[in-house]
Amino acid sequence: MKRAFVVGYPISHSRSPLIHGFWLKELGIQGSYERIAVEPAAFDTFVRTLAEQGFVGGNVTVPHKEAAFRLASVDDPVARDLEAVNTLWFEGSQLKGMNTDVAGFLANLDQEAPGWSAGMKQAVVLGAGGASRAILYGLLQRGAERILLINRTLERAEALARHFGTKVTALAWDQVETALEEADLLVNTTSLGMKGQPPLDLDLSRLPKSTLVTDIVYVPLETPLLAAARQLGLATVDGLGMLLHQAVPGFERWFGARPEVTPRLRALVLADIEAKA
Fold it and tell me: Known catalytic residues?
């Protein structure tokens, strides 16, 4: 029986076992997928002994993605650019790593808002953390002509903008509402609006009526940002699909079958979110 895992610290909140468990059952595969909490100081040892522990691979989440990048052999250009790995697997005796966050973000928008990237002239991205880095990569990959990156700490946004070149411009947080005026896409990558966090308080009235608004937060499923956008008649995409789609490539690597993100899977994970709300 093949064994896979998700490792992080903390990890008890992870819904990855629910997702992969669903696919294992649906596809009739004898396998397991478990949560493992590993402190940063112990992560190197954990990774170096994966084969001894009987694992075929697994997912890596906060705060270990950068350490996983250093420990794995990485051919994936996305992981190389982000310097972060969220999926590990073995090819023979060699531990390989890739990053599926970008693919998950793009696949979610493709599924929920087909054609969203056609003619995208300007995107506005809120937040300059690790998630923002992945979203910027994906938007540039899809042809965004200009991205306004807005963060409470301007210096952090400026450093990230420099990494991606002239198509990304860093702005201070007090410029956010002006930045919205020509946005084709608005993406929130901050924790604002997440359960237990302050709301993301923005006046969205300046957004064009054609703007698509998306949030990578999925607890709650409809964040205050998405609720405000919907009330204005704007198209919205929640963050749950990104979680589901980013899980597909890893499952295929470990268990040899490519699963699908279906309404049944979404309903299962959503029911778990609501039960624990």
Answer: 65
